[in-house]
Amino acid sequence: MKRFLVALLIVLVIAVPGLAAGKSPGVVGAYMNYSRGYSDTPEELTAFVNEAADAGVQFLLPYARTTEGTAYYDSKIMPHTKKPFDAFKVVIEAAHKRGMQVHPWFVVNADGFSEFSPITAAHPDWCMMDKNGKRIAWLDPSCPEARQYIVSIVKEIAANYDIDGLSLDYLRYAETKTCYCDRCKTAFKAEFGIDAIEADNIKNGSWNWAKWRLWRYRQTNQLAREIRAALKEVKPDADMSAYVWGAQSYGTGWGICQDWKTWVKEGLLDWVNPMGYYSIRSEYITAAKWNREMAGTELPMLVTMAVRSRGDKAAAVARTTQQIRDAVDCGADGVVFFTLEDARPLLKDLSPVLHDLANGKLKKAQ
Ligand SMILES: [Zn+2]
Q: How far is the CA of 68 from the centre of ligand 1 (A)?
């Protein structure tokens, strides 16, 4: 009997994460990159947050860890960006005063991107390697020390800032085919008996090609689990969410191995904001529908929209409004602007539709 109870307890504990999904941050969110002279002083940045709140933006995703591997906050771990004040802290304080949630925009694997950061330069063995044996400035998820580094940053932010969640970005392999370092090649060959480069050279969609993809899914999934566990340890109530390529993540042409459906299935995410960067309306709608289906019905799914405000303003407002309505029609729970800075010239004009969305007045078309 005792053994049975222990077994039952284990089953219950294992089952819990699958039930955790589904916390809404709000229905209108926006990334913030502090660019374009809108955030040169704390006062300017605070005024910008207030402007967003007035327009109906409900939650913010301010840049915390960048693709360059730098921090927009007072980090003891990462090199700092060139901001004379803690921009991240200013956004949190201003946003919370207005009842807006804050989910730091956290770049996971890219660390230096086009050139090596001090961290990736100092630890080449932490980095992904391309087919030609060249290291690139991306942290390799198969490297325990690299994962540990990422997790330490998650803990630093969660321990020192009043965040409502963590918004992951770039949790994936690079667009260029990776990773062919000795660690990855050896581990893959030991398990599947195939050389990784050979597996990659064969036809897309073939069995060996799928094995190589599966093995890399496992690496990024393991990292997703470790980030979730770290967040839970330091700030148990904080959400975890992710920007993902959506249906495109699973396209045979890409090797980014961002297996986000598994993150959803395992209850690692509380909400998800897949890519909606399409200027052709039919493509935007198709992607939103696919992503709604792939995210399932339990999890809030918000479409990430590229807001373009250059050129004719009335046309930009009309285009953005149309995309918001289309997202709702496709079953999305809301939208996330990329970025608030890009949307700023349109905020006043978009305010009515954003308030309608927030008040549930934008109904799904029948
Ligand atoms: Zn590797």
A: 20
